[in-house]
Design a protein that fits this description.
This protein has one domain: NagB/RpiA/CoA transferase-like (Rossmann fold), CATH 3.40.50.10420. The strands form three sheets. A six-stranded parallel sheet has the order 1-12-7-4-2-3, sandwiched between helices. The chain has a four-stranded mixed sheet with strand order 8-5-6-9, with helices on both faces. The chain has a two-stranded antiparallel ribbon with strand order 10-11. The chain is α/β, with parallel strands linked by helices. The chain is built from six helices and twelve strands. It is globular.
Length: 197
């Protein structure tokens, strides 16, 4: 890369990279603003079901903004019921463990396949990234990824998410949402700590 990383603001770079591949980037002051964002998004797309990954996120997504929607999570459903309901969720909301500014890539570590599917099955994936988890380059993330792998006794899946799902296999025409979400929304949270993150 020809640019000097020291002169490049990581948030500006990350924003540009996410948008360059058709993603949506929004900077929020606090995690408390997430339910309103998701509610507006759900209203715009006439969504009925929102899947959330993780107990902390599940408790965040219950304010009045989201009352008309069916919020599903492993914390409020049996596994088999959650998997069945997840297949018809229009929006999936999850935390990202890291963000890489130079590529606009999100890194998510999950120990449960159903939590990973929240990022892959719904039409729209909303990823919540704490500002403190944004690094400039993938090399900078290696130590933190190794730590994530070390600190978990169960098997861990590491997913790198760089854009909405797309393919150009048929006639060279780009088709969005072919093998996963059609849209990726990244919410960068500027507060220092996130409850439940």
């Amino acid at each position: 890369m020809s640019q000097n990383r020291n002169s490049d603001d990581p948030v500006t770079r990350f924003n540009a990279q996410v948008r360059a591949v058709g993603g949506y980037f929004t900077s929020l002051t606090s995690v408390g603003e997430v339910p309103e964002y998701v509610s507006k998004l759900a209203s715009t797309m006439n969504a009925k079901r929102i899947a959330v990954s993780g107990a902390g996120l599940s408790s965040l997504m219950v304010p009045k903004h989201l009352n008309p929607y069916d919020i599903i999570s492993l914390s409020n459903m049996e596994r088999a019921d959650f998997f069945g309901a997840l297949k018809s969720a229009e929006i999936g909301v999850s935390y990202a463990d890291l963000g890489v500014a130079e590529t606009g890539t999100l890194i998510a570590a999950t120990t449960d396949e159903l939590d990973r599917l929240v990022t892959a099955l719904p039409l729209v994936h909303v990823a919540i990234l704490p500002r403190s988890k944004l690094v400039f380059a993938l090399d900078d993330a290696q130590k933190q990824i190794s730590q994530l792998l070390k600190n978990t006794s169960a098997g861990v899946s590491i997913s790198l998410i760089s854009a909405s799902s797309r393919t150009a296999d048929v006639g060279g025409i780009t088709i969005l949402g072919a093998h996963g979400p059609k849209e990726l929304h990244v919410l960068l949270i500027n507060q220092n700590t996130l409850g439940g993150a």
